[in-house]
Amino acid sequence: MKRIKIKTKVKGCPTKIIRHFDEELFMKLNPPFIKVELNQFDGCKKDSDLKLTTNFLGLYQYWHNKVIDRFDSDNLVYFIDEGVEMPFPITKWIHKHKIVKIDDQNSYIVDDIEYICSNPIFEFFSYPAIFITMFYRKPIYVDVFNNLEE
Questions:
Q1: What percent of the chain has pLDDT over 70?
Q2: How far apart are CA 6 and CA 141, in angstroms?
Q3: With contact defined as beta carbons under 8 Å apart, do 81 and 68 qualify?
Q4: Which end of the chain is more exposed for a tag (fewer CB within 10 A), N or C?
């Protein structure tokens, strides 16, 4: 199993930030080299579904994730989505989205991903692509959350 964990410091408290984890933000977080068609976005509450079709270099892949857990407090908000149907070569996907309060003005958004591919060679070669795709989110998170109107 491979793990990728990326932490981004943004302005705002967890309960405010989570309210903006919506369809618009999800679409902004997708890198331009992967075309995404959003088929279903139910939000980030427990039992919500996310279904999408990706197009990378003409290769269309279907992806279905389900939110399996959600927690809310003043200092921490998180939700965990798990892959139901994932694109080749991924066979298992768990993505924990955490928003952790640092102080009264700032929080960390943490993307913590664990995944397994159909064989170790695919895991080795998929790691840089998945890491870049997740790292791409950092400046978007900063731009969105550091410029929110109060």
A1: 99
A2: 12
A3: yes
A4: C
- Is the pTM of the predicted complex or chain greater than 0.90? yes
Query: Average pLDDT, stretch 3-10?
Result: 98
Domains of the chain are: 2-146 (3.30.530.20)
Tell me the residue length of the chain.
Answer: 150
Alpha-carbon span 125 to 102, nearest angstrom: 34
Beta strands 59-72 and 76-85 are: antiparallel
Exposure string over 3-37, b if 16+ CB within 10 A, otherwise e: ebebebebebbbbebbeebeeeebeebbeeeeebe
Does pLDDT of 84 surpass 70?
Answer: yes
- Taking the C-alpha atoms of residue 130 and residue 132, their distance in angstroms, rounded to an integer, is 5
CA distance 108 to 54: 28
Q: What token pair was written down for 46?
A: 């427990």
Where would I find the beta strands (DSSP E) of 28-89?
Answer: 35-41, 49-56, 59-72, 76-85
Distance CA 113, CA 116 (A): 10
Indicate the pairing of strand 35-41 with strand 49-56: antiparallel
